[in-house]
Amino acid sequence: MRVTIKDIAKYCGVSSGTVDRALNNRPGIKEKTKQKVLQAAKDLKYRPDFTARSLVKGRTMTLGIVLFDLYNRSYAQLLTAVELKAREYGYFLYIALTDKDMENEKQCIEYLANHKVDGIILFSVNKGTEFEEYLHGFSIPIITIFNFLSADWEYVGIPERAAMKNGVSHIIDKGYKQFIYISPPLKYKGITNIYTQEERLQGFLEALASNDLKEAEIIRHNDYLDYLEKINFRQRERTAIICSCDLYALEVMRFLKTKGYSIPLDVGIMGFDNIDVLKYVTPALTTIEYPVEAIGDKAVESLVHKIEKGSYITKENTELSYRFIAGESI
Amino acid sequence: MRVTIKDIAKYCGVSSGTVDRALNNRPGIKEKTKQKVLQAAKDLKYRPDFTARSLVKGRTMTLGIVLFDLYNRSYAQLLTAVELKAREYGYFLYIALTDKDMENEKQCIEYLANHKVDGIILFSVNKGTEFEEYLHGFSIPIITIFNFLSADWEYVGIPERAAMKNGVSHIIDKGYKQFIYISPPLKYKGITNIYTQEERLQGFLEALASNDLKEAEIIRHNDYLDYLEKINFRQRERTAIICSCDLYALEVMRFLKTKGYSIPLDVGIMGFDNIDVLKYVTPALTTIEYPVEAIGDKAVESLVHKIEKGSYITKENTELSYRFIAGESI
DNA sequence: ATGAAAGCGCTAACAA
DNA sequence: TTGTTAGCGCTTTCAT
Prior knowledge:
homodimer, alpha/beta, 434 Repressor (Amino-terminal Domain), Rossmann fold, 12 helices, elongated, DNA-binding, LacI family transcriptional regulator (chains A, B), Lambda_DNA-bd_dom_sf (chains A, B), transcription (chains A, B)
């Protein structure tokens, strides 16, 4: 049987109220009694039951984070930052992975709510008013990351569109004339939340537009390698392949290398994310870096602020930057 | 205010006991009343409070996992598998990262215990009888992974030593005569738990011994690149650099490439882990693969079994394999 | 089949 | 300064 506050009370010959005062150093207790109780707690190896405390306090000192998966290195880095920051503030972290399944995500959120987390960090795959209605029903502080939901929800992220536009502008300056853009399947467009991907695509298009370039092939399916296979890059004008994330870019690079193409002589490749393994890849991938740890930190800070002070830290303070990384792949 | 079981009771004109019977479909309730209550719960948007349930049930339906960090891809994969499996069994997962800090780890475990997790998956940096004493004090089911603690604790992992021995034997068969082994700093040897690293090193030594090879340089500090820099690999007999994990191997490979060495012609490199990014690296790194997801699955299965049935699934069933991956780097 | 009531371990308000 | 007591929301036992 676990040692409870009552056991200590009995052991010391005081009441449970007094024990509570000592343990949580609240005022109204004689120093001597306090020491006695504290010693007893140590002797008996007392350990507080957060479950019971939560019940009466109405707070659990836990946060929940909802992510797709940890396949992309960036997510793992984000999670690390969030865990660290959360515990710094005294919060424990539940992790829930949705595998991009909309129903699963809803269930995860529901479970987190039932477990009475004090706040949720949400990288959602769901979107739309119905979903937002659903979220509002929980009346739990929620902060969205990466995938924007609506102005109703606090958001931490980077200006994806501007970042991509900036990157592609650099490429255009290098004299590339033809562009292929590779993005995850958008077949769920309009249904699932693909905010970040859409923003990056728009950034790409904007960069082309502002340079009076119209030619661009946009590939939004998983068979992009098949598509690339049909192309003879040595017979085209200098072509740049822009990928919406580094993982795609690495796949493309690997594929084109097996096809005997020289990169960037025959064809250029750009990624997005600057995942940490890039340093082991040659040629160095040109990409866009953003402070993923900072996003995690900001999210936690703002969320905890909301929980404890009743208001989020405003967006003005959570603006984050990006950086073009000139590699050798384009 | 949240809707409670009492609200439903009042709403339906029944007692809270009846509501409970309906909600958790326990026997002793008329079908009609049950439907009425269920409907009311829906109407009022009732959501159970797991905190309260936990208090009376003595179980929280949560597990905790304690890891160093998520820097190594393998850990992220492991975590993904664990989360998935845990929720499959109806458990939620707390994550606690220790950053290899011994005190931090103890604190994490303590917090998890206070939050009343039903079980803990532990990849520990602590070790020794004092620590084990500490763990026993919690009387919570614990399963250790990767870093073995003692026979007192259920363990899931792979035969690290045999795996490394097997891999190195392959290398020896290729005719390599000189060997350099690179491992994380062992300055804490005897203090922190470096079981896996020690086992791998022993496997390496055993492989040499059984081939009557004595020559080996073992580097156990972080300045291994400085050490390698002093060596002219073209003037030595064929040298193999064995790294205790892929991350080191990738660092070494990158470094030697910048030094103008051809791999594997001038020097061979082998890693361990088979992290998923290897496919983007050339030359393909020779390494050892093990089923990290399976380790996560087994850990959860065994832990849940212990929680629910009172006994762990025995070690015989949790033996996992490894596989030598012949790349082009050695 | 249903209701009443005790209690999980803790906190907090009120008495003494 | 200390003790007493009433909950927090739920489950469970014992009456009815």
